[in-house]
Amino acid sequence: MSQVKTNKKFKWALDFNQKNRTTTTELPSPPGYSASANASYTESSKDTDSNLLLIKKLWDVALGPLKQVPMNLFIMYMAGNSISIFPIMMVGMLIVRPVKALFATSSTFKMVEGTQATGQKFVYFIGNIVNILLALYKCQSMGLLPTHSSDWLAFEEPQTRVEHIGGGMSLI
Amino acid sequence: MRSQIIALLTILGVLNYAACIDYDGWVNIKIEHSLNCGRDKYCSRGNISLKSIRAGSTSLIEQIPFTRQHIAELQNIAEVNGFYTIRTIVTTADNSEGTEFFSSVKADAFIEKGLADIINVWVLPNGAVIAVSFQVTNTTQPLNKDAKSHQVYSNFFLRYVELAPIPDTASYVQKLEREREAREKGDVKDNRSFLAKYWMYIVPIAIFVMISGATNPEPAGAAGGR
Amino acid sequence: MGLLSIHIKPNFLGLLKCLNKLNWFIVFFSLINLSVCIYEDQIGKFDWRQTYVGRIKFSQFDTVSTAKKIIVATEENVLAALNLKTGQVVWRHVFESASTGNIQLLHVTEKVVTVTGSNPYLVRGWDSSTGVLLWEWSLTLQNEEQADFSEFWVQNNMLVHMLPVFGSHVEVSMYNLLTGQNRGATSKLPATWTNDGCVLSAPYYTCISGGVGSQQLLSLDVTSNAVQLLSRPISEYVNVNTYDGGLRPLDSNNVIPAFTLDDRKIVLIKNNQFEILKTEVVDPSASVALVDTANGQVVVQAWIDENEGFTVRAHAAGSGAEVPELRMSELGLRAGAVELAAATCSRPRDLLVCRLLVTGDDDSLHLMQQGGRILWSREEALANVVAVEFVELPVSDLDAAIESEFDQKEAAKMYSSIWAAFTRRLQTQFQQLQTLIQGLQKADGEPDEAPPALVRDYFGLHKIIVLVTDVGKIFGMDNLSGALLWQYYEPSLDTENVLVFTRRTARYPPHTAYVTIVGKHEESGNGLIISINPITGELIGEKLMHLDVQLLQCALLHRPDNDKLYALILLDKDENVQILPGSAAPLVENMYMYVAEKNTARVQGYALMYDGKALSAVRTWLVHLGGGSPARIVVSARKPAAERVHSPGRVLPDRSVLYKYVNPNLVLFVTEGPDPLHKDVVVATCVDAVSGAVIASQVHRRARALPLAVHTEHYLAYLYYNDKHRRTEIATLELYEGASRWLAAGAAFSSHAGRRAPGVERQAYILAATPAAAATTVTEKSLTDKHVILALASGALVEIPWGYLEARRGGLAEDGSVVAAQPAPPELMLGADASLNYNRSLARPARIHAAPAGLESTSLVLATGLDLFYTRVAPSKTFDLLKDDFDYYLITIVLAALILATYSTKYFASRKILKMAWK
């Protein structure tokens, strides 16, 4: 990634000092200087270090939804099962946020192009799904999901009849 | 010709309902139908005798088996989608003349279900019978058409007319009493959820926290990342 | 939480305030929604009441007091004052409906005096202008048996009571009118010549006595001190050979004693002498009255002439010359026979002005003036309505055209080409445009006086009520205004057990609506069928049909024939079946009938069979609901025939469904019979009318049944009087299939297949009132809640939600938690706000009828009795209708303003963006 960046940055630049640099490396090292330490540092800071950081950060993002689960559980517990404005708002948030996040997955991981991108995406996806499931469970326990036969009662066909009757008290 | 089938049957009458029977006595139910009767309009199909209405646990049903003629006549009725009508005459100790009842089942259904029926007899608390009705059972027991004679499988149920409830003043007064006591003690249980109870305190705090969080926008995500 | 912080920036104290305010608003609005009663400005908006008094028994003009009135006493035991100009009731007193309320005498001077009851009698004085009771005393007779023949009249401020003992003597007592003090004891006048054909023409008691051919006309002034018997042979007045004993007092007479002989001669008693008038009775059916005018007495006769209609002739009593001013005839008034109830004549400016109060056989009351002009009419038959049917109105011509255009069959027939369809479309559009323009013109101009056309309105709230009255008069009434649209009088119709069927609604435009009334012939008891177009009142179809056999029962076939007409099935006494029209016989299939005998509690069921040639009824079942004992059926209740329940179950608190047992063939019978142990027992039995199976039954001990029961969907309720606790109770039953359904949704229910017994929930409640009628609200699809409407003897029409009567208790608490079945309040609370008729009390309510409106939420209710009261109820509130006071202007303005604001801001925003881009 850093290479790409530098390439981009110096697309139109011409490096005349390249040769000079190689010559300067031939100078003896100052006292207390460790070439090996320098080598390892340059390696990590230039390439791996920033990459690792990014990956770490991205894992953070990917694990974010899962980390929210305990918090969500707590909110759900606090909200109670009664249907009033605040619990409804909370449940609404619980369900809307992960859905939104799912739709925004690609934009969130736009900058990622690496070996772990699929894994991160997957974890992110799973985390959001878990959140949605939790929210659905909350809806269910609040009775907001049409899962009972009573919820579909209004759409049932009314009963018809085979026999028909007439009559009443004797007219005589 | 007339063989006797003795069927011992269970009676639906639950004991506590039987308690509302004021009167006990015997009941005899004569079952007649109009199949293979020759010249008469109705001839006997059988007889049910009950020793006691209250006990009602055992009853004796004697019914003639249906011969080929019976079946043939029944089939004739079934062809025109007609009714197989049964006349019953109920005699009790009080009513020696007998009361006449009629009931019908669809002839085709009766054949189809292998001559199995349910007899419901409804009895008033004073021991009088108000209705004897026959219905075809739901068992799928096809009729063996080759057999010489067919037994009629009857299930007999004695049903008691229940005593209607009366307005429940006593328990309501008790309930009011309980409520009053509870109020005096002051332990009215509030089983609402924590948030439902205290949201008016939580919300301002939450809002306050949020607002204070919003005023110094520290990039929490960046700080955590570094 | 993030969402909240975005929308609500600082100042959370303000937010809290706002929330608090909102809270109060919520409380406030919920209170408004809770109140069921109407607002003050809605009085009479959805309802109307009409007050009636019943058939006139006595009437007199009150000419003394300043506000001119007619005081009437009626067969319904009502004393009332009618406004002379309008005929409206000024005041009214409704006495007891039993014989204790019978009005024996009405005497009007400055005060109104009535004698009511039958031993003991109550003598009351009323203020004629206000109807306030002034005095009252009671009069008890020792002689019980003869008391029925008592005669009362007022003479010289004394109440005279005369009690004839036929063939022996006449007892006469006089009492002080105000105090009841007996002036002198009872005097017994020997009168061996009296018989039950005698007439009183106060103060003369007149009889015809003696053997055939030698009858004597005898008359006695029973109040005079000296007993002086007038006696003349009858041959002096009439031909003895043709005389059949006809002796009638005059219909309206307060001048001098007079009577008619043999419906031919008019005899006066003047100066203790019989005096025969020169004027003869013109028509044997004529009603004769003697009226005092300035030029002496005038004999007024009124009758219905076959050609001329209602005819009045008047002759001077002295000379016998006709009084031409009083000659009148009115072709429009056709009321069977008429009777002159009262007459008064005055003479302002040398002109004889008479007012005649005429009652007809059809209980109508007309006030006639000079020249036969009817000042007003009252249809008192409506005080005794026996059957009611709500009938839909036809759609307007324009709508009918549109409907037929889009009718598949019609369309296929008419529009073979696309051009035909196109021209038709244009035509209809043009018509629509025309009506629109007409409507606009009307709105601009003065409001037209013509009544609204009889076409169906958008919500189906406008209907016609067909009312069948006890006397045999049938009315068509507009339900919105209560105006009578048409009337039809059939004197030979006996309306006991009369049935009304709507055989075709007005929904099928080329065919007219069709209502059939099945009654009995007055004399023979044979079936009498009247078929009427309920919109116009014309006889149609079978018209007036006399059957030659007594009917046992009749029913409507469940499916219509090609003319959309539902056939009428008649089951006669000999168990033969007829069908009208006969061509519908092949349509009979799966049709059953039941007949309940009231006095033996025997119920029989019949299956109707069509064998390709004729219809026959086969008796399939018979039950004795009283057992062997002599019980009688007090009431039977069946579901409305067209009821189709669109809510198959009841949702329980745990969100499972308890499925209703909706057996369309279920009939509730409530019987009452003696019991050796428990005095009277009431047995309620639910019988499947197809199979004859008893579905549920329960018994009340020591109770008496009331003829009030309701039955819809899966629930039943009936009222009975608990003898033990001396209170009225209401028993409710609910039938349930259970947690799973027996048949698939939409499957057909068959009584022959069902052998499972439903679960029965029972309950009983105390009703702290005397109910007089009961009904449930009916809506189009049975989706809306049901309310039970009770008419109380106190005059209130009370609406009770079924929730209060539920047999199955327990439900959802406010926070959604499940509440166990708790002991319900055992007494039904009938709050004043549950009264549908607010302060308009109904006298003697007898029946309640409910009919569905086109709106699912609304049910139309008519209560009959002495008064008629119509209203509409919305058991689940008007969820499909905007509020009555909905502000259309405000919402339009707000909408327009919002749209305007949207576009203007859009414009300004784009301009701003443009400006910013240039910066």
UniProtKB/TrEMBL annotation, chain A:
<comment type="similarity">
    <text>Belongs to the EMC4 family.</text>
</comment>
<keyword id="KW-0812">Transmembrane</keyword>
<keyword id="KW-1133">Transmembrane helix</keyword>
<protein>
    <recommendedName>
        <fullName>ER membrane protein complex subunit 4</fullName>
    </recommendedName>
</protein>
<dbReference type="InterPro" id="IPR009445">
    <property type="entry name" value="TMEM85/Emc4"/>
</dbReference>
<dbReference type="GO" id="GO:0005789">
    <property type="term" value="C:endoplasmic reticulum membrane"/>
</dbReference>
<keyword id="KW-0472">Membrane</keyword>
<feature type="transmembrane region" description="Helical">
    <location>
        <begin position="74"/>
        <end position="96"/>
    </location>
</feature>
<comment type="subunit">
    <text>Component of the ER membrane protein complex (EMC).</text>
</comment>
<feature type="transmembrane region" description="Helical">
    <location>
        <begin position="122"/>
        <end position="139"/>
    </location>
</feature>
<keyword id="KW-0256">Endoplasmic reticulum</keyword>
<feature type="region of interest" description="Disordered">
    <location>
        <begin position="21"/>
        <end position="44"/>
    </location>
</feature>
<dbReference type="Pfam" id="PF06417">
    <property type="entry name" value="EMC4"/>
</dbReference>
UniProtKB/TrEMBL annotation, chain B:
<keyword id="KW-0472">Membrane</keyword>
<keyword id="KW-0732">Signal</keyword>
<dbReference type="GO" id="GO:0072546">
    <property type="term" value="C:EMC complex"/>
</dbReference>
<protein>
    <recommendedName>
        <fullName>ER membrane protein complex subunit 10</fullName>
    </recommendedName>
</protein>
<keyword id="KW-0812">Transmembrane</keyword>
<dbReference type="Pfam" id="PF21203">
    <property type="entry name" value="ECM10"/>
</dbReference>
<feature type="signal peptide">
    <location>
        <begin position="1"/>
        <end position="20"/>
    </location>
</feature>
<comment type="similarity">
    <text>Belongs to the EMC10 family.</text>
</comment>
<keyword id="KW-1133">Transmembrane helix</keyword>
<keyword id="KW-0256">Endoplasmic reticulum</keyword>
<feature type="transmembrane region" description="Helical">
    <location>
        <begin position="198"/>
        <end position="216"/>
    </location>
</feature>
UniProtKB/TrEMBL annotation, chain C:
<dbReference type="GO" id="GO:0072546">
    <property type="term" value="C:EMC complex"/>
</dbReference>
<comment type="subunit">
    <text>Component of the ER membrane protein complex (EMC).</text>
</comment>
<keyword id="KW-0812">Transmembrane</keyword>
<dbReference type="InterPro" id="IPR026895">
    <property type="entry name" value="EMC1"/>
</dbReference>
<feature type="transmembrane region" description="Helical">
    <location>
        <begin position="888"/>
        <end position="909"/>
    </location>
</feature>
<feature type="domain" description="EMC1 first beta-propeller">
    <location>
        <begin position="38"/>
        <end position="149"/>
    </location>
</feature>
<keyword id="KW-0325">Glycoprotein</keyword>
<dbReference type="Pfam" id="PF25293">
    <property type="entry name" value="Beta-prop_EMC1_N"/>
</dbReference>
<dbReference type="Pfam" id="PF07774">
    <property type="entry name" value="EMC1_C"/>
</dbReference>
<dbReference type="InterPro" id="IPR058545">
    <property type="entry name" value="Beta-prop_EMC1_1st"/>
</dbReference>
<keyword id="KW-0732">Signal</keyword>
<comment type="similarity">
    <text>Belongs to the EMC1 family.</text>
</comment>
<dbReference type="InterPro" id="IPR011678">
    <property type="entry name" value="EMC1_C"/>
</dbReference>
<dbReference type="GO" id="GO:0034975">
    <property type="term" value="P:protein folding in endoplasmic reticulum"/>
</dbReference>
<dbReference type="InterPro" id="IPR011047">
    <property type="entry name" value="Quinoprotein_ADH-like_sf"/>
</dbReference>
